[in-house]
Amino acid sequence: MKKIFIIILTILVVASCSLDQKPKNALDRDNAIESAEDAHAFAARMHLGIRSISAGSSVYFQEIATELFQPSNTYGNRNGGTFRWQWQADFSLAESIWSNAYHYINHALFFIEKTQALDFANFTEQEKKDINYDMGLAYFTQAYMGYKLLKYFCNDYSPNAANVAGIPLVYEFNPLPADQTTYPGRDNLQNSYDWVLENLDRSRGYLANFAGKEGSSFLTVDVVDALWARIALDMGDYATAANKATSLIDGGKYPLLTTTAAMKELWTNDSGKECIMQMYADLAAQSIPNSNDPGYHSKQSNGEYQPDWILAAGVADLYSSSDIRTIWFDKNIEITQGDYKGKATLFNKFPGNLTLQSSKEQSNHLQKVKPFRIAEQYLIAAEAYAMQGGSFETEANKYYNLLMKSRVSNWQDASLSGNELIKAIRDERLKELIGEGFRFFDLRRWGEGMKRTYQMQDPKLIATGGADGTALTLTIDANNYRWLLPIPRYEIDANPQIREQQNPGY
Amino acid sequence: MKRITFVLALLLCVVQFATAQPIRVTGTVTDDTNLPLPEASVLVKGTNTRTYTNLDGQFAINAGRDAVLVISYQGFKTVEIPINGRTVIPTIQLELDANTISEQIVIGYGTARKKGAITGSVSTVSAKTIKDRPVINVGDALQGQIAGVQVYTSSGDPSASVSMRIRGVSSITASTAPLFVLDGTPTSTNILTNINPNDIENIVILKDAASTAIYGSRAANGVVYITTKKGTQSKPTVKVSANYGISNIARNPMRVMTSQEWYAMQEIYDPSLITDAKWQAEKEFRLKNNIGTNWKKWILNQNAPTVGADLSISGRGDKVDYYFSFSANRQEGIEQNTSANRYSTRLNLNAQATDWLKIGVNVGLVFQRRRIANYNTTGNSWYNPLNIANWSLPWASVYEILRDPQTGEFLGYGEELKYLGDLGLYNQKYLNHYRPNKDNTVRINSNVYEQITPLKGLTIRFAQGLEGYDNKFHALMFRTLDSKAFTQNRSIHSFSRFFRMTTSNTIEYKFNIADKHNIILLGGQESIINESSGFDAGKQGGKNPNIWGLQYQPTEYEGYPSESFSKYVYNSLFGRVSYDYAEKYYLDASIRRDGSSLFGFNNRYANFWSVGGMWDIKKENFLKDVNWINRLQLNSSYGTVGNSGISNYLPFSRIASTTSGYEGITPTGLSSAGNPNLTWETIETFNIGFDGRFFNFLDAKVEFYNKMTEDMLLNVPFSYTTGYGSGTNNVGNMRNRGIEGTFKFDFIQKKDLFLSATLNIGYNKDRLVKLFDGRDYFELGNTGLRYKVGHSIGEFYSVRFAGIDPANGRELWYDLDGNITGDYSEDYKVYIGKSQYAPWSGGLMLDFIYKNFALQAQFSGVFGKYMTNNDSYFTTNITVATNQINMAADVLYKTWTTPGQIAKYAHPKYVQGAFLDDRHIQNASFVRLKGVTLSYSLGSKALKPLKGVLTGGRIFVTGRNLLTFTKYTGWDPENMTNVSLGTYPNSKEISVGLELTF
Q1: How confident is the model at residue B49 (pLDDT cuts 50, 70, 90)?
Q2: Looking at the predicted structure, is the pLDDT value of residue B594 above 80?
């Protein structure tokens, strides 16, 4: 009988195993950030987030929805809904901006949570410096993403912001993403802007020692200020906007370009000039940005041009012949549409950086992404001063003329005031920032509505039939509900807290 | 030693002389159905004098006038016959013994139970049904065998296994496959292609909660319990069998156009060709010289051979029983370069070490070698052999066409071409030759146990099971001679290893109180470790096809090398109480507590339970005298089981590297959301039914069940504010409800003539009961799969085709309101009431024996099964009809050409595009003659000259899939999928075999 019990015991002992089986060969929440090196690698991805939301469809949406481009006969209804202002609650762009922005906000939150828990005592000086940068990057990412959300999904800032819908605010990484009760609803606009600015402020604190540099592919304190100036202008905080913009200008690190050659170098080979930030891209490392060109200048492999979007008549003529920006316009291009060939001027601000193209024959119109250029700061400064009126108009004229002088070789300084001054600055914004994704929100901010009054260069090239034809002369009131994108239907369906908070109209 | 034997023999003789004068006694032993029982043991009681019956059940033995004969045979009650001076004993009919192994079945842990004493829903498939089949896949034989069990051989690849569904589909994203258990140890589904069918004693299918709840979180889809053979006869038995067969494609459903038809069609579509001199000349040339290829014949194997050979030795001694087998099989596929070889050996050994300790081992070793062709798993590849068969232009040739340079006259054929210019394709056989794939697996299934019986009724058992396999896959690509098709060598090696260790310890106590209350208590504990790992290495760039070793390939191959690892475990406790009162009222209750690493940290443990009852009504006094009822039992059960068939590590939130770098850093980022609350799907099953035999003619078993799946796992949308778009969560309920019946008719039961038919029918309807967030429907992101509450989860959601407008030859559809429209839109999709999951399934088995001949036929069928015929989508796709691919011959004759014509196909001028609308969703119900075997057994007369050498012999001819009845026009209706394109179809086989027993 003794033997029996010995056998029983030996067998029972081996009959249990640990239920704690973790994925090996993979990172999970608990072991993703255990060292300064881990943290640095995790943080680096936020650059990709910033790059991705600063280029591509969210940029050209603003061009196609406004008045400067017209669909060609061969455009195949690509972005047609945007052109015709027909987007609905399932608009894929809205979902892509929304999901991307929140993905990176959470990425930043996760980074902050995990990094703060690290033991800094053993870090080298370089590691500490890196972590400081990364923390600055994390807060900047939240501010930048939050600001994008505010622009696309909320009304512009107003003194009444506490009573206007903002965005769902996320303060910490959600450990239970499957639990619907943890999902936030929309906060008000005031809190939302406060949250953005607070993050920006923190970011500035961490980045204080990372001085700006022309063409920097990394964040600098100047990048923070450039965003700040942009937001302040939006919020009507003209003093801050002017202050931030002029300090960037007066710092002298980002001289304006004055020659066509330099301009070409910037927009073809991505020289990085004028850029407060120009983001990294590399073909060999498979780090490819989105393209800002939805088909402005499509040259087929057989050499024929077949653009989707043709510049409206007269847009190229807004520029004087001595304007160095005329290099963005390719004149007299023969466009082939089946049997018909017609000539037109095509927009070519994004001719494509050859080093980012796998096929050297046919351009993919990829450029390094330039989220912040000094020219925009000139326009911000000018507009911010102009809006304050009175004695500030002198300053407004100053920055306006500085920009114009660099662009137009024989520029005679103007001395404008009142609405004339404001209109000149606004017109210049259109001309300077065309194609870079500012137009839609500029029109909204100015409350001008959107009127398509431009003629066609060659009506035979343009899709004039049916709904497209009607849309060629579309007028959108300043109070049209589509100035705000819909909260994505996916979010409305998944998040009970936001279910009743869709933007009106959708 | 010899001397001692001699002395002993002498002594015995003396003793016998002293008691009685021996006489020669003869007799015949039969089984319960009056068939002769060979190999029955006949022993003179109290002596060592023993003999065995011959093939005709006859025996002759010397015994004393007053001696008693003890007749025994495994599975039957032992009888004692006093001789009383007779020399011829009247026929001895043995009665089945419900207490012995063959009529006992194992229903999960604990000792075997009497078949008639089980409260749950359990069905058995015997060895007879499984053997003699000319395919490597054992599962194929199970098709149509059991009510409510649908088995599909979804691919005709010789190494492919079956997909099996017991009582419907109870989950959307978790596994729908049953749990396979081999001799008590859980094993993988692919056991069905990795076991020698002749080793199987029986396969028991457990369907309801009363029988499966003891398996807890793995039993959601039922349990398939495979028991292998053991030695039963005290005389060693050696069996040798061999078979040889040929396979061809099971059916040839679609006729594509001949050259003549193809040219005719082109001329209808483009009448200008009629006057195109160049076209006409070429047409004339091809047709006149009969140039062209029967692509189906060219690309598919004809009469692909299958061979099998098998040897087994079994027997039992006083303390030991043993079963040993070795088998070798080879099956060639009907698609070229596909084959499977299997070598398997098995040893089952049980030893009664002491009167309280029994130990045993069942171990099976299998080596499997497969050839897998490169293109036949890619449905839409031009090089898929089925697409070559269907799509290739009929007038194209694989040979060079020699023409007189002056006259252009046809001179004959040259070499087989490497590049088929007429098709714009490489010769597929040529490509495959340069891309050999080799795959082999070594596998072990081993179960070891130690069993202690310290006192009567108490059994303590420790079992250690191991399933493991190593797989090696080598994909080679050689630079082709023309260096165009493949410009360089490439070599990829993949190694993977899997093992599962199961340790289970049980204690069982059987006792009764006052002879009426029979009680069995079972308690147990189990732990299961599953581990798989693998690594792959690949390089490329070599130019010389003779040197393909990795070290000789100069360049890396993207994605290689790589490595993987996965491990998950279960820890469980379980118990069962079985009670019966006088074998009349039965009550069973079981409980299992499972913990698994698969689930969220907060929900790792779950409890499953069941109660079942059975009432043996026939045992009641009021039925005692009702003669037409031979047996009648009523049973019912209720309980829960779980489904843990999900991907590993789902609770963990994953962080992964991104492909895009930033300034030299490869960043990491959030990749998938974890869910620490994740838990199993639970299935509540109610079962009620009866089992009886009437008029000594009809066995009938009818059952109704209702299965409710709760906490169903779905990949559900998350709020983007979490940083994630979706993740797995427990949401949703679905239901399967059905009825199943099995009816066995014993038409004739005579000694030389036997005829019976078994019919089974199952009906199952599944229905999605509830989704999450009050949603009425849910579309799985980017899969096109859409689920709607109140509908079957397999129901097709499609745009309804409304035919061809006779007026103008354009295609028409129905819009959402049922109005006819000429514009196709995805927005017109509706549920069309047809499901990929067949509600009806059944089988019919015929058994006929006349003297030494036996005929067994097995039909199986499913009804109400629908499938999207993606093959016909291509062969009737008018948009590609001009010149690119060949089409169904039908298209020529049923295309609209003139106003008023009722046509099936639109004129190509008017087609908007090719749409996978509901015209391609075809009825894929089918009835198949799954197996038919005719065999002849050698009688004792024939064996007489071989006496002492051969004790039995059998010759058989077997057919598989010889007949298929279906309306489906694609390759194979048995394919279990919602969309079928280029899927390896089933084959039909005919084989002959021989079995000898020594």
Answers
A1: confident
A2: yes
Could you tell me if residue B39 is inside a domain?
yes
What are the pLDDT digits (tens) for B400-409?
999 988 888 8
Domain with B504 in it: what CATH number?
A: 2.40.170.20
Rounded to an integer, what distance in angstroms lies between the CA atom of residue B708 and that of residue B53?
A: 53
H or E, element range at B889: helix B889-894
Residue-number span of the structural domain to which B486 is assigned: 254-394+403-654+666-794+836-877+914-997
Residues 6+ apart with CB under 8 A from B695: B628, B630
Instruction: Establish if B622 belongs to a structural domain.
Output: yes
Pairing of strands B698-710, B733-749: antiparallel
Residue of B nearest to A285 (CA): B661
Residue B38: per-residue pLDDT: 78
Q: What is the pLDDT of residues B151-187, one digit of tens each?
A: 998 888 888 888 899 999 999 888 899 999 999 889 9
In a domain, B180, yes or no: no
Of the candidates A16, A280, A491, the beta carbon closest to that of B663 is on A280
Which 8-state DSSP code applies to residue B442?
E
Q: Are B99 and B113 in contact (CB under 8 A)?
A: no
Amino acid in position B636: S
Q: State whether A493 and B569 contact (CB < 8 Å).
A: no
Q: Is B788 exposed, middle or buried (0-12, 13-18, 19+ CB in 10 A)?
A: middle
Give the CA dihedral B175, B178, B182, B183, nearest 10 degrees: 130
Residue B520 one-letter amino acid: I
Q: Total structural domains in chain B?
A: 2
- The domain boundary residue, chosen from B93, B109, B141: B93
Choice between B104 and B100, residue whose per-residue pLDDT is larger: B104
* A54, A112, A176, A282: best to mutate for the B interface, most B CBs within 10 A: A176
* Residue B580 is assigned to a structural domain of this protein: yes
Q: Which residues of B touch A127 (CB under 8 A)?
A: none
B45, B68, B93 — which closes off a domain? Answer: B93
- Mean pLDDT confidence for B339-354: 93
B571/A17 Cβ within 8 A: yes
ipTM greater than 0.85, yes or no?
Answer: yes
Contacts of B569 in chain A (CB under 8 A): 17-19, 21
Q: Which residues pair with B682 in a beta bridge?
A: B642, B710
What is d(CA B951, CA B729) in angstroms, rounded to the nearest whole number? 62
CATH number for position B24: 2.60.40.1120
A:229-268 residues touching chain B, CB 8 A cutoff: none
Average pLDDT, chain A: 94
